[in-house]
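Sample intake sheet
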Amino acid sequence: MSAPTVYDVAERAGVSIATVSRVYRTPDSVRAQTRERVLEAARALGYVPSGNARGLASRTTGVLGLCFPDYADPEAEAEAEDSDADDAVMLYSDQIIRGMERAARRHGYALLIAALLDGGTEDLVAKVAGRVDGFAVMARTVPTEDLDVLSRRLPVVMLAGPREIDHLDHIVVANTDGERELARHLIEDHGLSRLAFVGGETDSPDAEARFLGFRQACADAGLPVPEAPDLRIAMMTQAEGARAAEALLDRPGERPQGMLFANDQMAVGALRALARRGVRVPEDVAVTGFDGIPLSRIVTPSLTTVRQPIRRLGEQAVELLVQRLAERDREPVSLMLPVSQVRRASCGCA
């Protein structure tokens, strides 16, 4: 016997499908007598509303989507398996997801998560777009032309990176300002002048914005301004951060007084590599990261970093999607969220 449907409930209660939908989505918009008749019919039939059934009349799904690159870090995942403190090894994407989930629940939505693995994006985008009411996309995950087409069908908000499509809502954090102030702290407060910056690939917008901040701090202090990071890392993981630290130690010339990494994951890997080599942090070299992931506060020494409001980034994405769903023609919004320095032992601060 097939499960009862919204059609069955509507027929038994003598109302339209739209009325059944409103009973479950916005019950206060339906007269109490009609609402009770619908609920009584549903109970008699054993009907349980699904996301698809709720959307039949309104053409909505009750689901929001998030698409982001695969930020997997094998070493961090191994730590998570061996640790009782799951929050301590939460990475950047984990916290965005948590922020989106929190805000989505508050607005009565579920969250569909799609991590971009190796391969093309067309199939992924098509699958997600057909199952959600709105879509949050991390920068450089989906080709601009595909996003432009997608945005004609449903609301899209871009997370991080440059604003590539003017008519889309967009959220970014103050990457350049944060890295500039962090480098300035090392230069002015700790008297460091030989600084090395480890960045990402040129198509990593956040990493490039952070490198720009580093260059500005060098220029302000009258130090040589590098044209490119000392090293560029494709996968900004702990393992790659460790290899970068080793490479900086082994290159000819004087050792850097400070190593600035474009994210915390690389900086954590560097701390461990430096310890293995007998290099003291911060006595021999200062180390800094960026992001403010929970792991940064429990490594030894604790990591000086720039904390960005990662969960708030996810929450704000949901808020913009919900606002856009309610008012499709409003002007597009571009937000820059502030960041803050977290000075810890790895730079020489208490």
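Comment: The CA atoms of residues 214 and 311 lie 25 Å apart. The radius of gyration is 25 Å.
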